[in-house]
Amino acid sequence: MSQRAPTVADVVAEHDIVVCAGSGGVGKTTTAAAVGLLGAKTGRRTIVLTIDPAKRLADALGVAELGNRPTPVNLDASGSLDAMMLDQKGAWDSLVERYAESEEVRAKIFANSFYQNLSSTFAGSQEYMAIEQLSQLDTDGDYDLIVVDTPPTHHALDFLDAPQRLGAFLDRSVMKWFVRPYMSAGWSSFRLVNRTVSALFRRLEEATGVGALAEVSEFFTIMSELFEGWDDRVKRVERVLKSDRTAFLLVASAEEQILCEAEYFCSKIQEHSIELRGVVFNRVQGELGVEFGSIDHDDVDEIVGRAVESKAVRRRLVANFLRYETQARGDQLRVETFRDQLAPGIAVATVPNFEQDLHDLAGLERLRSLLE
Ligand SMILES: Nc1ncnc2c1ncn2[C@@H]1O[C@H](COP(=O)(O)OP(=O)(O)OP(=O)(O)O)[C@@H](O)[C@H]1O
Ligand SMILES: [Mg+2]
After folding, report:
1. DSSP state of 124
2. Helix (H, G, I), strand (E, B) or coil at 275
């Protein structure tokens, strides 16, 4: 007897941490919020860590103000839902606050212009901060379920590589170069001294736009203490992400290009020794023909004709509808083909393209019900 395939809700119920990953704009933030709602409705103390939610969704979750603090969402549920908006700058600041040993060190870092620039622009830091924040919430143990939204990276896997990339950037051996006293001699002489380091500086300048060497040097001197134990923290988070307490959900749409990226994600995720637990196909157009049997042009013309007198309007409505049906059939076929390649135990949910954006709790509720 074949076992019933798990639903996304089953997957959520069996894990402590759920990470929503996928290509840019597919609905990761919305799905993460709906999974959060699911957690609260199933009696769990839940927190959703969202990144750059659309303004109206942020309002609905009560996180429109930046601040990196958990905010309770007003819900009628047996559990609870807190939401937290992870902004890049705020996340760096809280990291400094957490690890700086004195008020003086803290103030010095905050005043450093290199820091100010880095904390709001450095690529990869948002991914890292999401992971750092996750680690902190997990250690504190105030929640039964932590839902993690991921930033709109070009590639969904960037999220997983971020700790190593940022770790490499802040590696102690690299830092040593920045805190050498002869650096005060300035850029030009320094460039002559060491080609590797000058290449590094160029990268830094490009990444941050800050060229003041003294600021850079000071930053690394102070930060080197702060990043004591960095490797251990990265390793710990990696362990958590790879453990069976964590489920990765892939969010995708039915578009050809997105599905190609999703396929690549599925193959690469294994290289990180992470198992994919579920896929949410979002904004998939439904075929009306499936519900009503096959519909052809004459049927539609007759039905529309009963309501619309103008021949010209009727022609356009019929053409529009049939175009939609063709597109919907394409969506269904692409999703089916992708589904067939997935391992049997992976949960799948298909979510239609709703007539409106999902920016309030009622919208999230519609999405939640489709995950069960
Ligand atoms: N099934 C749906 N039907 C209608 N609108 C949807 C649906 N899913 C998501 N949306 C809307 O699409 C927009 C993008 O969704 P969302 O912000 O969740 O995507 P994202 O993957 O987080 O994007 P980014 O990669 O930029 O962070 C939002 O305005 C959201 O309300
Ligand atoms: Mg998003």
Report:
1. T
2. coil
Report how far ligand 1's centroid is from the alpha carbon of 98 (Å). 33
Q: What domains appear along the chain, each with residue ranges and CATH number?
A: 1-101+124-158+244-372 (3.40.50.300)
What is the C-alpha separation between 369 and 372, in angstroms, rounded? 6
Ligand 1 nearest-atom number relative to CA 51? 27
- Which ligand is closest to the CA of 35, given by its number? 1
Question: Containing H/E element for 82?
Answer: strand 80-85
The residues, ordered by sequence, that sit 6+ positions from 231 with a Cβ below 8 Å of its Cβ are 167
pLDDT tens digits along 194-242: 455 556 666 666 665 555 556 666 676 676 666 666 667 777 777 888 8
Residue with tokens 């933030």: 29
CA distance 50 to 27: 12
- Looking at the CA of residue 26, tell me the nearest atom of ligand 1: 21
Q: How many residues does the chain have?
A: 372
Q: Which of 157, 153, 333, 344 is nearest to 256 (CA)?
A: 333
| Positions of the chain with pLDDT under 50 | 1, 172-194
pLDDT at residue 238 in the model: 76
pLDDT for position 73: 94
Identity at 163, one-letter amino acid code? P
Tokens standing for 30? 């919305």
Atom of ligand 1 nearest to the CA of 283: 1
Q: Please tell me the distance between residue 148's alpha carbon and the centre of ligand 2 in angstroms.
A: 11
Atom 15 in ligand 1: residue holding the nearest Cα = 27
Task: Give distance in angstroms: CA of 152 to centre of ligand 2.
Answer: 6
**In testing the pocket of ligand 1, which one of 253, 265, 357, 361 has its CB within 8 Å of the most ligand atoms?**
357
